[in-house]
Amino acid sequence: METEKRNKIYMREVAGRFRRLRSLVSFALLAVYFALPWVRYNGAQAVLFDIPGRKFHVFNFTFWPEELYYLAFALVFLVIALFFFTAVAGRLWCGYACPQTVFTDIFMWIERLIEGGRRKRMELDGSSLSGGKAARKIAKHAVWLAFSFATAFAFVSYFIPPMELLARIATGSLTGANAFWLGLFTFTTYGDCAFLRELMCLVPCPYGRFQSALFDQDTLIIGYDPKRGEPRAHGKARKDGAGDCVDCTLCVQACPTGIDIRDGLQYECIACAQCIDACDSVMRKMGLKEGLIRYGSLRTISGGTTKVLRPRVILYGFCLAALFSLLTWKLATRTPLEIEVLRDRASLYQKGADGRVTNLYTIKAMNMDSKEHTYRIKTEGIDASIVVGRNPVTVRSGEVYQTALALVVDRAEGERVKKFDFVLEDAEDPGVRAARQSTFLIPEGSTRLSRAEGEAR
C-alpha cells in the first residue's frame, strides 16, 4: 500500500489588516510569555511554580497542594471558554493565540529573513548543494535552535527563578532535571516548528477533529462566496458573466496548511485569515469589491442572517459566567490559613474533684501565606478556658504548626455533647481567621448535678 508523500508548503507572505492583527496579538503573547518570569511582586517572583517547595506563587496568591481544586476550577473554566468562543467565533484560538501558531510564525519569519521570499526558498531548495546554500541552511537552523532554547529557558523560568537558572548554566551546575527539561523543550519546539508545522494541526491536534460538534450554521468561519466567485476566470480571459474569482491561487499559496478555501469548510483550516488578506489584495488590483473570501457564518455567506443568541451559546455562556463568578468568589474569600482539630481519643474527658471538666485536643495550623504570621487560639460558642503552652503562636510560611491543648469548663451545664468552634485569628489582622467545629464532652451526671445545685440555690 503506497502512502502519499508529503509536499513541503512554501507559504507566501501577505500583508493586510488580519496579518497586522495577528502580528500584534503574537507580539503581545510573546512579550507576556518571555517577560513574566522576570516580573517582581512584593520582592519576589510574581509567577513561580515552586515544585520542591510545594507552593505556587501567582502575584498576591500563594497556592498549596491542598488547594489543587483551584486548578480544577481553572481547567474546567478554560474548557467551557473554548467551547463558548468556538461556537461563536470558530477557530480564532488556532489562528491567533495557539502557541503552535505563534511559534511557527516566528520560525517562518526567520526563514524568510535568511532565505528570502517564497520563490527564492523554492529555488534554493531545488538547487544543488553549494557553499552559499549550506551557509544559509546552517544559519537558519542555528537561529531556530537559539529561539527554541529561549522558549525553553522562559518555560523553565516559571519553575526556577531565571537569575538562578542563568547562574546554574554559567557555572555548569545544572541538575539532571534542569538539563532534561531545557533540552526537551528546546528540541520539541525546534522539531515541531521547523519540521512538523502544519502536521501538528492536521494529525495529533484533536481540536480540528471535534470542531464539527461545536460549529453550526451561525458559527463565524472563514468562507469563500461561490455565488459571487463562480465561474472562475483568469484576468485576461474574463468574459461577461464570469465570477469575481480570477483563479490566481494566492489564497492557496498563503495558507499555512496548504488547503484551498474555495473547496468549502475543512477541518484543516486554522482561521488565520491569510487567504482573506491575499484575496482582498487581488480584488483591489482588479477593481472589484473586497470580501470574496471573508469572515462570516455559513448562513450569511449563503445570503441569510446569523443568529447570535442560540441555545448552545446561551448554555455555554451561562456555565462560563457561573464558573467565573464561583472562582472569583472563592479567590476573594480565600483565607491563607488552614486549621485541623483532633480530639484525644485516649481520654474522652477528665473530671476534677472541684467539678471542672477537661477535654484534650490537638490543633494543627498551616500558614499558606508567603510570609510569617502570628495567630491567636481561641474558642467561640463555649465558655471555657484554654490551657496551652503558647498563645499566640508564630507560624512561618508553609509551616504546619501542631500543639496539644486542654479545654476546661468550670460548670458543666447544658447538653452532654456541646458543639463549638476553635478559631485561629491573626494577631495583627483579625480579618485573617480560620475556624473548625469540634465537640466538648460532659460526663453523665454532671448536668443533673448542675441542675440540682441550681435548684438548691
Provide a descriptive summary of the structure in words.
The chain is of the alpha+beta class. The chain has two domains: 1-38 and 90-303, no CATH class; 337-456, Immunoglobulins (Immunoglobulin-like). The chain is built from 16 helices and 16 strands. Strands 8, 9, 10, 12 and 14 form a five-stranded antiparallel β-sheet that branches. It has a four-stranded antiparallel β-sheet with strand order 13-11-15-16, with no helix packed on it. A hairpin with a 6-residue loop joins strand 15 and strand 16 (433-441). Residues 448-457 have low confidence and may be disordered.
Structural domains: how many:
2
* Relative helix content: 40-55%
Number of DSSP E strands: 16
Percentage of residues in DSSP E strands: 15-25%
Q: In DSSP terms, counting alpha (H) and pi (I) runs of 4 or more, how many helices?
A: 16
In whole angstroms, how far apart are the ends?
104 Å
Biggest β-sheet strands, sense, barrel: 5 strands, antiparallel
Quaternary structure classification: single chain
Mean pLDDT: 89
Low-confidence stretches: 448-457
